[in-house]
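The freezer alarm interrupted the setup, so I double-checked each line after restarting. Inputs confirmed:
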Amino acid sequence: MTRPVFLGIPTASVGVGNLRGERPFPAAATDALDDTQLRRNLGRATATIREKRARVVAEVDDWQELRDAGASIKDDVLANLDRYLVQLEEQVTAHGGTVHWARDAAEANSIVTRLVTATGAAEVVKVKSMATQEIGLNEALEAAGISAWETDLAELIVQLGHDKPSHILVPAIHRNRTEIRDIFVREMSGVGRAAPDGLTDDPAALAEAARLHLREKFLRATVAISGANFAVAETGTLAVVESEGNGRMCLTLPDTLITVMGIEKLVPTWTDLEVYLQLLPRSSTGERMNPYTSMWTGVTPGDGPQDFHLVLLDNGRTATLADADGRAALRCIRCSACLNVCPVYERVGGHAYGSVYPGPIGAVLSPQLTGVADNPSLPFASTLCGACYDVCPVEIDIPTMLVHLRSKVVESKAGGVPTPEAAAMRSASWVMSDSRRWRAALLGSRSGRLMARDDRIRVKLPFLSRWTASRDLPAPPKQSFRSWWASR
Amino acid sequence: MRVALFTTCLVDGMFPSVGRATVRLLERLGHEVVVPAAQVCCGQMHVNTGYLADALPVVRNHVRAFDSVDVIVAPSGSCVGSVRHQQAMVAEHGGDTVLAADARSLAGRTYELTELIVDVLGLEDVGAWYPHRVTYHPTCHSLRMLRVGDRPLTLLRNVEDIDLVELPQAESCCGFGGTFALKNHAVSSAMLEDKVRNIQSTGASVCTAGDSSCLMHIGGGLSRLQTGARAVHLAEVLAGTRAEPWEVGS
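Predicted 3D structure, all chains:
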């Protein structure tokens, strides 16, 4: 069977945004493992969220049916994206909003920068948003002399700490409250209201410090920038779900609202939201219901922002859609359940993935948005244990997709001089596809016994040292199974 | 019943006692075991490392080797997982639709050891004797790919004189993941460390599981850290009786 080959669909902007890491995953992960504070923070936080999620998911009798619905609604959206996007544009426009189409991060950044500049504002307040992190919007605005203030508590911690988010939902998961106190005390005064004197690491005191610091910015801002969790094609309604109410401040107080949204965030009808507003909070924060759900349709005279712009972002999404074996990654509703159950994420955290989308979903999404050549180590950052697939509220088969992307990485390297791995795999294939060759190889492998002591190989061999550095390897047995069976 | 043993390459080459224990167990239960000589490997290593084209001849050899047998059993959840979920995909990727159809048929006839015993042979007690403190690690592919559920534990609970203790965080991966253990050896070792610590906390002298690959990893950690505990395949726990005990490595 020949597979369709799609040519010429652009991937995510190069040199802009945060989808590509500076180092391969294994190197970045090894460094992360050395940070014992990080491992403690992550281990504790992921275990807590995991248990909460499991508890509230178990309460729902029709959870599996909800997952099926969540997957099929998104598949319909993806199959008819062209139609739904135009429908959304018509509805938003009819309700007084303006729609902009951005091919990639660079284009989206320049559209937003132009819109902000046109208002004359020198600062904006921001609702927590993965799309704007993805495209590096804050950096682009800063280059244009515009200050962007993150108002989600965790994003504020990350921004004040000159840090990067390490989790989709809980971007400061790698920090504990003592570290947060220190960041507030050190950094708040430089960019606004200082932290109260004698600030402790009591969570309520930290929240109060953030509240005082942010309130000043909410009341002053004339422009807000948000992402969107959902957009309803039939009505033109945008939805943001959050836990703090800070998002709602941004969505209602300023005169101008600019929303940057990936083109896959659509649902066809208003009633489809019912499915996701059940799936999302239980999967992400382990809550039965989301605390703040803000929805708006275009502009409402005399109420809320009077100037609304929606920027529809591609940045590699159409390229992802073109791959039949990878496109289901676009179902993702950014709940992070897969991060919280992932044994790899739990130990190394989000920064090691080098992309704003870490964990299992990041390992399949980032390489597709950028093209696998730019993120070749991410599809291998998994043991294929399958815990992610089990918890995914939209049934993305991440392990199978990882295997598919691994084959794309291998194919992308084919052609030139074979890598040592490719050569080894080729010869293993030759040996393992014929039992006579295999039998001969087994006889040869007994030489491995020469290196063994107490039937364990402990010596360091170049190709095996990655194993023997931390585990013993049993010596090959005196007799293979097939030889025993033949002699029986 | 006539059962064909899919030994798996790892058991054939590195852990033959697991194959011998599987034969002993099935024969003891009154079944005939055959071992198709042409078999080698299911192709999982190639597939999971991204080498689909190189996996194709391996898959072809495997499917052809078991063409003429009705019921196949393997002492490995992950190799059976590969037969069920990967071989047809590899054949299709390589454009061989006939092989894909044969692979699908083979997938329907291939069972993991505890599936065969509980579902096909209808047994929950195999009459085994194993007088040790044992903890059970459900390997990821048995657990989440095959959904073997509590079949292994049901069989273990009915072993005479076994002291079966629960493994904390049992469902967490041991960190093996095939070539993951080499490509991401530091992360893999960190995961193994936690698994070993959990095994030690049970005081068990034996950690058992249904996959020699995961057991090679766990056993390598238990041995390196000189814990005194060993990794023993489920087939070896179930193979012996009071009259004829199974010696590990026999």
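Quick read of the result. Chain B has two domains: 2-120, 133-239.
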